[in-house]
Every structure is written in structure tokens, then in C-alpha cells.
Specification:
- By secondary structure, the protein is α+β, with helices and mostly antiparallel strands.
- It is built from 4 helices and 10 strands, in the order αααββββββββββα.
- It has helices spanning about 1-20, 30-65, 75-100, 240-250, and strands spanning about 140-145, 150-155, 160, 165-170, 175-180, 185-190, 195, 205, 215-220, 230-235.
- The chain has a 5-stranded mixed sheet, with no helix packed on it.
- Strand 6 and strand 7 (about 195) form a beta hairpin.
- The longest helix is centred in the N-terminal third of the chain and has 35 residues, at about 30-65.
Length: about 250
């Protein structure tokens, strides 16, 4: 009984810790969606984990002194119950995940007649432009990965930054990512951004930053001896400050 109480208390402590932990403040709409999904899945996973552990502890305590164990008899009702319960859990996880992955700020934007032509410098496939409804506010940035660094080009200008990406808040931002040599992967964990840079084509991802601040971005696809150098600063600026910064860069 002492073991049972100890394990039960430990499980209860883990549950309270998971519930009371403060989530990371959402820096973009994409992160907000991802955090929401994680919370839903955690709410389902914790009761299931507790149930499984309770059954396991019960079985260990009840049958630990059984020197002549017998096989259990068939129980169709029990088998149907856990099969149906598992199916319900999987359907919930699949439906909840699909709702998030279908959002542009989490999944890839899909090309359609409702979009304008993307502003890119190379005639490569894969780039997806903003929606027509976003035409006057969207920002497009071309990200070029190379051994071993990143180059950002801001649409409609000749402004480029190396190992630094600047974006405004509360405006849709489209990143057209490509590579000059082989596979790289752009990752900005604080904003929920992660996408592969393929040579010879574009990969477009979208975000809408909600809070100003500085974050780290880096390559998460091992790409050679200089892989650890492929990191930089991701700066989220107030919209007016971003416009002023971009204008100043053009005048220099």
C-alpha cells in the first residue's frame, strides 16, 4: 500500500505541475494555434496516462504474490470497449490536428485564383503570393540559404540583410525560402516557423507576428561543417518602425 500511495502522489504532482505551468506567451498567430492544440492534447493525455498507471499499479499490487498465475478468459465487452475508446481518441487527435494544420499560419499557403503573384527574384516554382484581400498590407520577404548563412531580400526594394530578418507586427508576412546549394531548414521556434529550403524551388510560409521582440533563428537541417554558424536574429518591429527602417535602408 505504501508503494501505491507513493506512486499515486507522484502522478498527482506531475498532473498539477503540468496544469499549473504557464505556457510561453504567443508571439504570433501560428504559435497561438500550436499552443492551443498542445493544451487540448494534454487534456486528453493526462487522464489516459493516469488511468493506465492506476490499472498497472492495481495489477502489480493485487497479483504480486500469485505463484500460480492463470490466463484470463476472453472478455468481448472489454475488448470492444478499449477498441472503441482508442478509436475515439485517435479521431479526436486527428480532427484537432487537422484544424490547426489547415491554418495558413501553421501549414503552407495554397496557391489559388484568390492570390496575387508572389514578389520573387527568380523564376522558380513553389512561391505563393498573398491573398488579394491582403494586397495592401502583406509583406513578402525572400530568404536565400547558402553555405553557411542566410540572406533576406525585402520585396519591392533592393534592401538585403545577412543573418538577420526583420518583420512588422500585425501584418501578414510571407517568406519565400530557397537554397543556393543543398538542403537547409529555417526554424524560428518562438514564432512557430519551420520550413525546408530546397535548391531550385521556393517554399512559402506565412506568419502574423503579434508582439515586438528579438528571437533567434537557425538551420535545423544538418548541412556540413559550418552548420552551427547558420543562425541569426529575427526582429519583430512595430509596423511604423518597420516602415521607417525599410525607408532608411533604401536611402543609404
Amino acid at each position: 500500500m505504501r508503494v501505491t500511495r507513493t506512486v499515486t502522489a507522484a502522478l498527482a504532482g506531475l498532473v498539477l505541475l503540468a496544469i499549473s505551468a504557464d505556457p510561453v506567451f504567443a508571439q504570433s498567430q501560428g504559435v497561438e494555434q500550436i499552443n492551443g492544440l498542445n493544451t487540448k492534447l494534454l487534456a486528453v493525455a493526462i487522464p489516459i496516462a493516469i488511468l493506465v498507471e492506476v490499472i498497472l499499479i492495481y495489477a502489480v499490487v493485487k497479483f504480486k504474490g500469485n505463484d500460480d498465475p492463470k490466463p484470463t478468459h476472453e472478455n468481448r465487452r472489454l475488448e470492444i470497449t478499449w477498441t472503441v475508446a482508442t478509436a475515439i481518441v485517435l479521431l479526436f487527435v486527428g480532427f484537432a490536428s487537422y484544424q490547426v494544420l489547415a491554418v495558413e499560419e501553421v501549414g503552407n499557403p495554397i496557391d489559388s485564383d484568390e492570390r496575387i503573384e508572389p514578389q520573387v527574384s527568380q523564376d522558380l516554382e513553389g512561391a505563393v503570393g498573398p491573398l488579394q484581400s491582403e494586397q495592401n498590407e502583406a509583406v513578402e520577404i525572400e530568404i536565400e540559404a547558402f553555405r553557411y548563412g542566410w540572406r533576406a531580400t525585402y520585396e519591392g526594394t533592393d534592401v538585403t540583410t545577412n543573418n538577420e530578418i526583420r518583420v512588422p507586427t500585425d501584418r501578414p508576412v510571407y517568406f519565400h525560402i530557397t537554397s543556393t546549394d543543398w538542403l537547409h531548414m529555417l526554424s524560428v521556434p518562438d514564432l512557430g516557423l519551420k520550413q525546408t529550403a530546397f535548391p531550385g524551388e521556393y517554399n512559402t510560409i506565412k506568419t502574423i507576428p503579434t508582439e515586438t521582440g528579438e528571437h533567434q533563428f537557425y538551420c535545423t537541417e544538418y548541412c556540413g561543417i559550418g552548420h552551427s554558424q547558420m543562425n541569426g536574429k529575427f526582429v519583430v518591429m512595430d509596423g511604423d518602425d518597420y516602415d521607417e527602417w525599410l525607408a532608411n535602408q533604401q536611402s543609404e
